[in-house]
Amino acid sequence: MNTKELDQAYVAHTYARFPIEIVKGKGSLVYDETGKEYIDMGSGIGVTSFGICDDVWQAAVTAQLGTVQHMSNLYYTAPCAKLAKLLCEKSGMKKVFFGNSGAEANEGAIKAARKYAAEKKGPEYYTIVTLKNSFHGRTLTTLAATGQDHFHELFQPLTPGFAYADANDLEGTKALALETKAAAVMIECVQGEGGVIALDADYVKGLAAFCKENDVLLIVDEVQTGVGRSGSFYAYQNFGILPDIVSSAKGLGGGLPLGAVLLGEKVEFVLGSGDHGSTFGGNPVCCAGAVSIVERIDDAFLADVKAKGEFVREELCGAPGIESVTGMGLMVGIKTVKPAAEVVKACMANGVLPLTAKDKVRLLPALNIPKDVLKKALDVIKAACL
Ligand code: PLP
């Protein structure tokens, strides 16, 4: 059996895969089993921050593989400690808990918020207010956090203690948080899976002020928006706010599984010995790769991400067949006249691999995609929209 046949026969059918097997790649270019070249405009859904087999990341990972590939969290390892310091410096947070994925990072964030609120205000302060149309993961708790009914239907009962506010309705969110005795409000600054929709700046700022005044924790899910994607290291930095808890994953590991819960001043010590854990969390190989990613995302690099994001918008806004362009930095949603799936199919036939999010075409290219490669991909996308 070939790969597709094996996969069909033995892998659970949870993904509607495209009929392409990717066999190799370098940077923003990937190749299928026939040797056909594609420009990768999805980066593994925002994971391969510096593209496929980036030299610096690969060297960091392989060097660590040759020393220690894993130790339990009973012992110290340098990459984990170094990465935690870098993340705190970049984010304004104080401590880091490492896990393996975005959903796990959100689980940790929710646990930290519930423990803080129960200890500080009482056990009835457990509700987490999230936003309608949000996406926070696939575990039972993060599905409950996800404000989209259709994700909930088949998996009842979900973890209780979640309430859903309308995005950008500040008064409604505040009222819901007070009424439910919320431990925290959790937001994505740009709803990714929900269709690449940025929250209004006034809403985010107003919500941060409300949370501070009422000692309701603000959790920002930066799983998709984080690690340079938005043109700032974390997207909340574009809004001039400082959350209490930040979840991070996807692009952090550059291609290896890594998630992180970043704990701000209020909750710095809330998770004590034995309160939380993960066998693989903080794995030295994943962390060594992540250090090589995070170290390179400096101000000049972020300015370049912003500039490329603006270039994408200039190219696409007002082009025939394109109704609107949303998002931030190199996180782009394109509302097309044609159905998004049709546009993606035409792009694939012409050597470009975009994603979709709801009814939009979504672009999450590698952050270091060369401008000429980006331009080439955008030309193909524009032609596919006609
Ligand atoms: N949070 C957000 C905002 C996401 O976009 C995702 C995944 O798409 C997740 C959480 C879940 O991350 P993971 O698939 O790594 O568990």
What report would you give on this structure?
By secondary structure, this protein is an alpha/beta fold. It has 13 helices and 17 strands. The protein has helices at residues 3-10, 43-46, 55-65, 78-91, 102-120, 140-145, 149-152, 170-179, 201-214, 284-294, 299-316, 340-349, 371-385, and strands spanning 22-26, 29-32, 37-40, 95-99, 127-131, 162-165, 182-187, 190-191, 197-198, 217-221, 245-248, 259-263, 322-328, 331-336, 352-353, 355-357, 360-363. The protein has a seven-stranded mixed β-sheet, with helices on both faces. The chain has a four-stranded mixed β-sheet with strand order 1-2-3-15. It has a four-stranded antiparallel β-sheet with strand order 13-14-17-16, with helices on one face. The two termini are 39 Å apart.
